Amino acid sequence: MSSRLAVIAVSLVSAVIIALSVVAIVLVLNPESAPPAVPGAGHDRSDGPNLVMEGQTPPAVGQEPALGQERDVGQEPAPGQEPALGQEAGEERTEAGVRRAAQTTLGFYSSGAYGEFWDSWTADARKLIARDDYLRMFELCKPIAENLSFEIKGVTLDGDVADVQVTRLLAAFTYQFRYEGGRWRYIPDQQAQTDYTSKTVEQMASDRRASRGCAD
């Protein structure tokens, strides 16, 4: 009886050894059946979010900013870009600048563009007579020398005021300009200023006609 039990015990031990051997062979041949490794084993871990992935990537060169990323207020225009509406370049505050401005302003008068000529006066001078009244005066008395241009002979510059010497045919005149608001503006002579404030348009036209200054 004892020998029989011994045989059974040896058989059981042999069966267990065989079973363990089979399991070992399976694990070696099939790694996927092994238990999972510990998460993060052998690597540094961070409990925070991945800042690189979650941060906003700056736009590429030439790419428009994303919605909500507005350009800085007051940003300078790009080179070659036209200036904003109302930002006109001023005239030079030099003798050459006076010459160019005077030539343009007196050209308005000689060509019969009396409205543009009035527009070129200083602010105080424009208060002496309304633009419409000034135009009406030339409707009542068209200048006999219309279309005869002025020739600038010299300029005397003194700060914001300039005297411009001109000739028209054989007559010589000196006109005054003042630098105002970035432009050289015409100042009517003292006699004209007095007439504008003391006479009506009809009276001024009549005086010019009497002196044979009208074309008709």
How would you describe what is shown here?
The chain is an alpha+beta fold. It has eight helices and four strands. Strand 1 and strand 2 form a beta hairpin. Helix 6 runs parallel beside helix 8. The protein starts with a helix and ends in a 6-residue tail after the last helix. 12% of the residues are buried. About 31% of the residues have low confidence.
Descriptive keywords:
alpha+beta, 4 strands, rod-shaped, 216 residues, 8 helices
- Gyration radius, in Å: 49 Å
Rounded to the nearest angstrom, the distance between the terminal CA atoms is: 162 Å
Read across the widest sheet, the strand sequence of neighbours is 1-2-3-4
Overall pLDDT score? 73
- The level of helicity is 40-55%
Q: In percent terms, what proportion of residues is strand?
A: 5-15%
Outline:
rod-shaped
The SSE string, one letter per element, is HHHHHHEEEEHH
* Contiguous uncertain segments of 5+ residues: 22-88
Derived structural class: alpha+beta
Sheet having the most strands: 4 strands, antiparallel
Specify the number of helices: 8
Number of distinct beta strands: 4
